Amino acid sequence: MKRKFIGMLVSCVLTTSMLMAGCTTESPADAPVEETSKEEKAAATEESSDSKETAPMDGDVVVGVSINALDAINNRQVFELMQEKVKAAGYECMATNANGTAVQQSTDIENLVQQGCNVIVVLNGDTDGLTNAVKEAASKGVHVISVESGYIPGISAYFTKNDFALGATMYMMLASEMGYDGEIIATGHNEHPAIRARVNVQEAMLKEYSNIKLVNRITTGYPGTTELAYNGVESALQQNPDVETIWCTFDLEALGAAQACEALGKTDIKIVGADGEIDVLYEIRDGEQIIATSVADLEATTNNVIETIADLEAGENVSMFHEMPYIMITKENVDEWIEKTESYLKENGE
Q: Gene3D superfamilies in the record, alphabetically (predicted)?
């Protein structure tokens, strides 16, 4: 009995020691210990928090809506819808279009600040190219909201699709089409966070599915995305005639890739895009090379942006990250989106 008691006592001591060890982290004995000031701790806490506490805004709210470019239908729709929602909420609205130039969009943001905007919604911007303009605006008390423009230090809220999840869906569809084996061409560039995310997903999937061989990577960009994709894909297909799928990052690339396939008679190659361009929707409906695309739920997103502006106006806590929902479009639901898109284009005289 005594032995049993001692054994139980030892077991308890060992268990307690293990639990205590699991709850502590031992630092190397020779590592220097740096003291952190109260101010640094407070700054770190504020930076890492998912929500921001703000003071109520003084005076009337004036909202600037700044977009990088309007070539993609998704951009035109969100630009127009955002302005409509701002005005419907009773706020004064100013809007600018940089025509695809990051430098111009930075200038636009600076001008909106000078014109009295105390909230600026940045649509589809170049993250790195806007860093200084956003920092300067924030230093003057302007709330900057990033919508598909990446995380930029100084912003009050960040809206974006989960482009890693979207990319995984896009490229898993194509990998499945080719039986996870064969040659592919990939397109993309590094000038926008959404595109970078999808390119990173391409690379990750190629590591996982080693029987899929990337024979050529086409670097696109803006402006001239479709033409860059067409020229690159046409040349790559001539050198690699056994390609089965083309992994594009968005619709303007997909259209150029599809045109190159058609020009070379490669009607069996499959492609997936993103953004819901009308010509892509027609390709999906007609069973051509492009088999899927996606669209962001812009109605829900713009409503959420307006709610965030109202919270900022009232000085309430505001979450930093807001995930934008999106919808995949395939042959099963493409007719609905063709009808919606044709209606939008007709209303806007396009």
A: 3.40.50.2300
